[in-house]
Amino acid sequence: TDDETFSDVFCENSKKLINVHLFALAARYYSLPHLGVCTPLQEILEALREDNQGTAGIKTDEFMNNKKSHEVQVMSELVDKIANYCGIKQVIDIGSGKGYLSSFLSMQYNLKVYGIDSSNTNTNSAHERNRKLKKHWKAYQSRAGANPESQRLENANDRLVLNEIKCEAVSEKPLNTNCSLQSQDQETTQDLVPSCVFTEVATSETSKQTEIDLVAQAESDESRLSEEALAILSALPADAVEVFSSSQCNAAELCEEEKVRRKTASIKAKASKSSESNLYCPLTSYISAETELSDIITDLEDCVMVGLHTCGDLAANTLRIFTAKPEIKAVCSVGCCYHLLSEQYENQEDCTEEVWGFPMCQYLKDKGWCCGRNARMSACLALERVAVGQMLPVESLFYRAVLQVIIEEIYGVTKRDRHVGKIYSKSSSFLDYVRRSLKKLELDDSKLHCENKLYNRYTRRMNELEAFNMLKVVLAPCIEVLILLDRLCYLKEQDNVAWSGLVKLFDPVKSPRCCAVIALKKQSC
């Protein structure tokens, strides 16, 4: 058995690690890739794909850094496909930050997005960033729409490509139900890796006609509209369309394609004014498991809930809100900051919470499972980055370890609510680091007299510290998989969930927290 295979990792009596090689093998064995519980991203995309080429990806690296660009490109494509499959146009982005994902979903995929973040600073930044993005995209739209000749419309599309804003028409054809995802039987362990078929997935019944429907109607009435013109119009939101002024040229002299272009733009502009003045709306609100979204969003309708690197308990609460609210038909959540999770069976005397970040599923609750803060801190480490040569910050870890000794030996403090934070990068030396840290912890630095002696005493043990942290890195994926499987099992315990799974979305070197928890509700729920 597996237990027998790895029984020699630790000494039976002292419980000390005695076989590092076997420890590493055991850690690998219980990691997410080896367990085979992830559904491949391509399998999900194929299952959700409609009979069209979709929307060509606009290069986001012009607007955000490499890591964020990668995350937004991959996740937005998946969210758009989920929304199309469910027949809905509204997205709720929980913990939206500065709106990178939200603004891209609205501008690239024409989705109505509400971004909710607890920080008013983030919300204001998101507003400003979105304003600049809209202005940038409107400029390209205005250039493309100002010339009535079809040949020059083609050239306009070429200019967009040269400027790394690649657009194709967004087709709104219904999903082929033969390629739907199969509903999972929640009682079998094999269902952790579903076949590529969804059933009983919720499809929203909406009565109002969207602006995409209006554009489609105009397209059927005027078949001579060029594909290139439609590509430019469809790839941007309605309120980015600049309606060409009729005073600039004689209407009788307009080519047929330009007439249709103007008509399409007019329809889109009217639809925008009558329904949605802005496709992306950043909001400030603290989200808990009990949050009533209808109190925050007045026009809440059937929607997809998403979260890109939601910190701590917010990832768990996102899943709880999904299962509790009938309007939310699907969820796609990537969590992070496991060290900030609240645990039901850790320090119970200090906590009065009734809703916990871990564990979520009944199986682990029944066992009273507890990870502890140190384990959760380890789960945040990035094994894949270390594997490609991005080594651990050994000196800063050493500074922090010696600081801990100073605080305990000189000040007698073993536990404080305050945290040091990112002091190392601002410090010129170890002594400067210690003084800055003590100031932040509100401790009197006049008591310092032997910090250099302590530093020198432990310098020779720096290699031990590095080895210890490397062991933590090796173990990190095992702890992360426990947290992720807890969330997946929670979803599988819910009667109203048709399908749920773990999907590796991102390159783990670019984005270490790379796995999404995805679920879709049954049609009647």
Please give a structural write-up:
The radius of gyration is 27 Å and the shape is globular. The chain has helices at residues 2-5, 20-29, 32-35, 41-48, 66-86, 100-109, 120-145, 150-162, 211-221, 227-235, 256-275, 293-296, 313-324, 362-366, 373-379, 383-387, 394-411, 430-440, 451-459, 462-492, and strands at 90-94, 112-117, 280-284, 303-311, 328-336, 497-504, 515-521. By secondary structure, the chain is α/β, with parallel strands linked by helices. The chain is 45% helix and 9% strand. Strands 3-2-1-4-5-7-6 form a 7-stranded mixed β-sheet, sandwiched between helices. The longest helix has 31 residues, at 462-492. Strand 1, helix 6 and strand 2 form a beta-alpha-beta unit. Among the domains are: 31-136 and 277-380 and 478-521, Vaccinia Virus protein VP39 (Rossmann fold); 389-459, no CATH class. It has 20 helices and 7 strands. This is MET25 protein. Pfam families: Methyltransf_32 (PF13679). Residues 67-344 form the Methyltransferase domain.
Concise overview:
The protein is α/β, with parallel strands linked by helices. Among the domains are: 31-136 and 277-380 and 478-521, Vaccinia Virus protein VP39 (Rossmann fold, 3-Layer(aba) Sandwich); 389-459, no CATH class.
